[in-house]
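Format notes (please read before filing issues)

Several people have asked whether sequences and structure tokens are stored in separate files. They are not. Every record keeps both together, in the order shown below: the sequence lines, then the token lines. Line labels are part of the format and must not be stripped during preprocessing.
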Amino acid sequence: MRILLATNDFPPKVGGIQTYCYELAKNLTSLGEEMVVLAPRVEGNLEFDRRQNFKIIRVRKKISLYLTFFSVLRREGIEKILVAHRANYARLASWANLLLKTPYDIIVYGGEIHRISTPGGNNPYILRRYMEFVNVINERPISYMVSSFLHLKNYDSRLINLLNVKYLLSTEKIESEKFRLIWDQDLKVYENKEFLPRAFIVHRTKVIKERDKIFEELTNPRFN
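Then the structure lines:
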């Protein structure tokens, strides 16, 4: 099958999405698919492109990617489109599906999924305070290492609400009155009925400087 991978992020430029797209193109090629990559021209791409066993079409500016998109579909006999960046190519791929009946898949990253962000964000650097806060929720040692994704052990903790967590994804049943099951398939989606919005007004404050005392106050049943 002739597959077009349309992306703004591709090696030799360095980054997580660039690596993901490259490995995707390389492995699909090894499985017998005929890959064509549409990507921006970057420094060092000529030497990099010569070493690949799949076709890479480079354009000078990002805006040219959109103008070149449909001509590449026809010229290369593309049978399927992989969109590696929702914001830039999703609409073009939908038009191609409508006009040319070309099927497409969209690859999304983190907060791009229905525009829902994760509590830890998509930065590879994890804030120490966030890590400590999550450990307090899960009743673990403060210094326990966590990922940017929030993996909960203590679903009844009120501190989850302070992270503005409205939805939980789980493969297992969650036994907690504060979470309502709203989707029940292989992956279950629960809604937090007590979540706090990203912005809210606080009427009373208490200043505490010591870290341990801060978390002691947060876990106090009287804390509101």
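For reference, the curators noted about this record: The two ends are 58 Å apart (CA to CA). The chain is about 30% helix and 15% strand.
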